[in-house]
Model the fold of this input.
Amino acid sequence: MQPLPVTLLTGFLGAGKTTLLNRLLARPELTRTAVVINELGAIGVDHDLVRRSEEQLVELMTGCICCTVRGDLSRTLHELWRDRVRRRVPEFDRIVIETTGLADTVPVLQTLTGDAVLEERYALGSVVTVVDAVNAAATIAAHPEAARQVTCADRLVISKLDLADAARVAAVEPTLRKLNPGAPLVPARYGEVDPTVVLAPVYSSPARVLDWL
Done:
């Protein structure tokens, strides 16, 4: 059995991750997707999408599965696989993990690459970092976590382009390229992006993950 691709969706507080995720979940391309919210707070997806709730697990009207992690991410991923095999949840073909805005990306990546069983079941497809065009330069300068999120990314989604003035938009790319010269830049207005572009796996290797440590 092929391991399921995992997309890690990250970005600093207020960058627009949850808005982006809500837009993506409304698309038919994400019907067979499990979403893991690695947050300490409540699930941020639109309540209109929720069909039923069982403690930490909700099933969305689109057919997606969404769960909140308040403890061990590794355990959650093992349990999600078990429930998939036992058909306790709808079939899913990919996982999107949304991290808290203050999260250091590397420990989450270590979870996926440091457990032999998880490595058989899941493959790190890509790291997608959402960057706020309005506040990108100031946020990256003030917060090492934000800079690290950009450095680790396979793709950089530039959000809030509809709100940023021309000068700030022009400053975003040079700021990002200093930290990550190679990641494609994906523009997002009103949180809208092409899911086939954002979520297409590039399969980051464990060796590349270790380079970030």
Remarks:
- Residues 46-55, 57-61 have pLDDT under 50 and may be disordered.
- The CA atoms of residues 57 and 67 lie 4 Å apart.
